Amino acid sequence: MADTNGAPPSTVASQRVADHLREQILSGKLPPGTRIIQDELAEELNTSRIPVREGLRILQSRGLVTMRANQGAWVTQMDMRECGLNYQIRERLEPLLLAESAPRLSENDIAELAGIQDRIERTDDVEAFLVLDRQLHWASYRHHRAEGLASIVARLWDTTQHYRRAFTRLTWTPRRWIIDSEHRLLIEALHDRDHNSAQRILELHIRRTRIELDRHPEVFQVR
Prior knowledge:
The protein is mainly alpha-helical. A hairpin with a 3-residue loop joins β2 (65-68) and β3 (72-75). It has helices at residues 9-26, 38-44, 49-61, 80-101, 107-122, 126-140, 147-159, 161-191, 195-213; strands at 35-36, 65-68, 72-75. The protein starts with 8 loop residues before the first helix and ends in a 10-residue tail after the last helix. The longest helix is centred in the last third of the chain and has 31 residues, at 161-191. It folds into 2 domains: 9-75, Arc Repressor Mutant, subunit A (Orthogonal Bundle); 80-220, GntR ligand-binding domain-like (Four Helix Bundle (Hemerythrin (Met), subunit A), Up-down Bundle), CATH 1.20.120.530. α2 (38-44) crosses α3, α4 runs antiparallel to α9 and α5 (107-122) runs antiparallel to α6 (126-140). The chain has 9 helices and 3 strands.
């Protein structure tokens, strides 16, 4: 039997497990290095171990979970070098994703970006900032026609989320004006249809974060 969308129940249950765990990981409720007890998760979600295992495999393919034979599953943990490499890849790929989308951004799209940035500037909450920052960048990518590229970029965002949160909490006050200025420059370049400058601003925006992360090894210490 399938659900109303045609997916078999086992697939639906596995995706539900994956979605639940992803939210827990990205929200910081399950930090890197946390062991995931499959029996406890199955009981929590009122399901069997089979969709739990399949859900874990989905998240393993996205880099959020590490599974070890005969040992179990853990939330994936990165060291400084691995995180820095992810940011270097972002520096190269995200401007390409922006280039795919930017020519099709409408005036309403750009006005939406400015509105999100207004909300960023009004918040003093790190968690709200992380949500809004993600909304802003992905709204600028929304008209891409490069699903494979977007999937890679989304994985890079997800796997570095914990370290971005820790870094933002550590440097929130002194860095705010820099982030706001870079966002405004990006939006202005998109508004002016100066797509080359927009790509360059985005590249430098990501690079600056990577360089500053290198100055804070405490972000990568196991807690």
